[in-house]
Amino acid sequence: MSRKRKKRRKAQQKKDPGQVELLPDQEVAEEGSAEAEDGEGVEDAAERAAAKGAVPEDDAPKKQTRPDEEAGLEKGSRKKRRGPKKKASRERKPPAEGSGAPAAPPARAPDDDGFAPAPRPAGNELGLARDLVESGRIGEAMTLYEAILAKRPESLKAHNNLGVLLDGLGERTLALEHFEAALQIDPQNVEVLSNYGSTLTELARYDEADEVLRRAQRSVPDDLRIRLALGILAFRRGLYELAETELHSVCDREPEHGLAFYYRGEALNRAGRYDEAAEVMLRACELLPNDSRPVYTLGHLYDRANRGAEAADMYRRARDLQKDGSP
């Protein structure tokens, strides 16, 4: 306590030892400042702060520091405290020229990739042409095959398929040109050789057809397409027993092959084996319901067997089919 206050308290105690004089707040503040100047009254200052509800500085919770920070402060670390980090700007500046950093790609429209459109794969065009054929749009299919060949004259499939369509339309000389072009690309292609030999057979160029088909058979001895073509060639040459032998093997292995059954039935008919021919031709009618040829031949066989009513029915059916444009 200050000397002045002690003297006053002593004087007061002399008056009334049980009472303590309370000083006004202003007077306490003045005395506190005086005591601070004198370096005394630290305990009294703490008592006054507690009485006002304040927390003395020594008892206030201190900010917790990390051990490494405390060590640095205690050892007089020279590290300076960094100020608050500045927020990075959201706008990215373009790299300076010559800095070596890759430049951002230029923006482009969604429908413009900067490149020329790739040509449509030939396989897709060939598939589309095949779909056109299956839907009966033969003219469109032929136009598409010709367009493919104009761009890719080395397309074996386009040559072969166009040749088949031309053969079906009776344009067999043009068909041969496409088959020959396909064979220039792949001389041993069995499918092309089979088609080529069949067209030669239709043109009655039997020796050439036989040479082509035998060449294909040497490559693939057991191919059913070749055996079918050889059977039809033998039939056209009048070799009916040979034709029946070749076609019989095809029918046994491919019981759903209508054309093989038709030509085999015709070979049996020409060979005078009528009962066998009628049985085989009946199966051909089932497999080729829109073809008038097996129906007419079956009518002829029924007529020969004195089955007049059945024969008349077959003739009527064949006539109706021909009106519808069937072969």
Structure in words:
The chain has 327 residues and is mainly α. The protein has a domain at 253-327: Tetratricopeptide repeat domain (Serine Threonine Protein Phosphatase 5, Tetratricopeptide repeat). It has 16 helices and no strands. α7 runs antiparallel to α8 (172-185), α8 (172-185) packs antiparallel against α9 (190-202) and α9 (190-202) runs antiparallel to α10 (206-219).
Low-confidence stretches: 11-122
Mean pLDDT, nearest integer?
75
CATH homologous superfamily assignment of the domain at 253-327: Tetratricopeptide repeat domain
Can you give the helix content as a percent range? 55-70%
Helix/strand order, N-terminal first: HHHHHHHHHHHHHHHH
CATH top level of the domain at 253-327 is Mainly Alpha
CATH architecture of the domain at 253-327: Alpha Horseshoe
Percentage of residues in DSSP E strands: under 5%
Keywords:
single chain; 327 residues; mainly alpha; Serine Threonine Protein Phosphatase 5, Tetratricopeptide repeat; 16 helices; globular
